[in-house]
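During the no-cost extension, the postdoctoral fellow (Dr. R.K.) reprocessed legacy sequence entries with the updated structure-token encoder. One reprocessed record is reproduced below for audit purposes.
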Amino acid sequence: MKLYTKTGDQGKTSLMGGRVRKDDLRVEAYGTIDELNSFVGKAITELDSTVFQDMLQDLETIQHELFDCGGDLANVMKERRYKLQESSIEALEKRIDVLSEEAPPLKRFILPGGTPAAATLHIARTVTRRAERRVVTLTNEVEDVPVIVQKYLNRLSDYFFAAARVVNFRLQVKDVEYIRSGDVFK
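Re-encoded structure tokens follow.
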């Protein structure tokens, strides 16, 4: 099988159930999710399995769920069955709660960074927010967009923030507070 098909040479790509321009809102939304998935893969390579086995399992699950999100957004068939489920959001919420309890209390905004893995997770967080914005735009412009994807991305950015803080904490690297921040977390 050849990797190239030449079917996109004229600026169009295939969805499940149709073809659209490569700059279509759907393509932009699931393309941003694909970019995010690559940063998750990078974070995985930066985490030591003896210290971060729990997060490595989370991140692999998240990678599968991101593929589900992209597939659900690319589905324009009349009869649709979406892959992403509410249980994925519930699982993220549970992990966010566990991770938030592990990290030291937070009063102020923090600067993205610390260890390489934490920095990559912060990048994943910001790309997640961009993906969420793209999905919101898509939802406002097009009917029949699975709302669960937007909800999942909103929760996922919180997961990445909590995970980045725990990575730094486990490796004994302090988060750097934004010095001009007031106390915003109570």
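Residues 116-141 form the longest helix (26 residues). The mean pLDDT is 92. The remaining legacy entries will be reprocessed before the final report is submitted.
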